[in-house]
Amino acid sequence: MHFQEIIQTQQAYFRSQRTKPTHERKALLKQFKKMLVDNEQQLYKAVHADFGKSEHEAFLTEVAILIKDIEEAQRSLAKWTRANRVTTNLVNLPGRSYTVAEPYGQCLVIGAWNYPIQLSLAPAIAALAAGNTVILKPSELATNCAQCMAELVAKYFDPAVFTVVQGGIEETQALLAERFDKIFFTGSPAVGRIVYQAAAKQLTPVTLELGGKSPAIITASAHLNVAVKRLVWAKFLNAGQTCIAPDYVFVHTSVYDTCLELFKSQIEANDYRLDAHNYVQIINERHLERLERLIEKEKIFFGGKVDRNNRTIEPTILRDVNLDDLVMQEEIFGPLLPLIKYQDFEAVLQHIENNEKPLSAYLFSNDPSEQKIWENRLSFGGGCINDAIMHITNPNLPFGGVGQSGTGSYHGKAGFDTFSHFKSVFKKPTIFEVPLKYPPYTSSKLAWIKRLLRFS
Which of the four CATH numbers 3.40.309.10, 3.30.200.20, 1.10.132.30, 3.40.50.10540 does domain 215-399 have? Predict the structure, then answer.
């Protein structure tokens, strides 16, 4: 388990300057898109083998986002790589000041299991667009997807530019012991701390995409049918195994009972079943057992059945949940949705503020004052007003966490920026010189310097 050879090969390739020209990056992106398009069915089969996920949902949640990322990068790369001129202050005139985006170098991307194709390859696309080389370590929990990505990347890319390393904890630890120019990790806060600590030993910059308990609020002013329809889709997509899924919902007392019935009827209307091709399996037995422990039988309003043979838990609504219940002590990451009554909007905001900053937050309200207060008061990675999850589908919105839910962001231009260092350059002509900064120092020179600094 020695990665030095591939690391040294990628380092040498990067130092050859071959990744930097825009046309080389576009060629890599074109090859990346070809790999996805030519092997769509192979990717769908791998995702189905790990999750029982249908082609419809696999395209929407895994492949489509990647293709749009590639197309956006191809379209915008010339603009992103252009030097960005900034104002030059009076002291430095005549002269020009600008920033230049340069790739970090060799990047390590550690993917997650819940959307194993998208969350592994999207950061790799951004890294290659920024001119880096990439070693990808996909999650070992989604075994078939990891194997599929390893085979396809080996077939379509020179390993000196982009390669996949498979394995578990031991291989990840061995990779983290090496020195990289940038590390990008998607996963749990617990593992994120380990990655951060390993990177700190090398002073390697890190982007962490983590998670947490993402709250949703349904106020008395909300359009209830729309709110519930959108929340049901967002929560039970991928059987709740989504880092930005609504984790729990505060519902105003005046509409609580109505919402309970609407949730029930919407879940029934969606007909969530594996054989209906609109639902997926829990990733493994360990996670199934963890989720089962979170279900308090007496609080089940709807659902709650566990099928160990098919590794599924049906969409479950928990009613009259208290903040100190077991299901409220950790990120659920599964198809369980607690509904909590509230009367005071301020108390809800205080509860969210008193806990770790979430990756996402959602408000369903048609009251402009509630919308403004929510937006101004709460700190979260990203979110929606009167929708859920859909902010991730806009490449113009950076995606990332804050505090315990992550550091840094990506998607679109934000992804290019994440894998780039913006170096500052000041360019000055040699035909003219103001001698004020040079010795001998005199009182008149100092007076002029002070005068100039007032206007700089």
Answer: 3.40.309.10
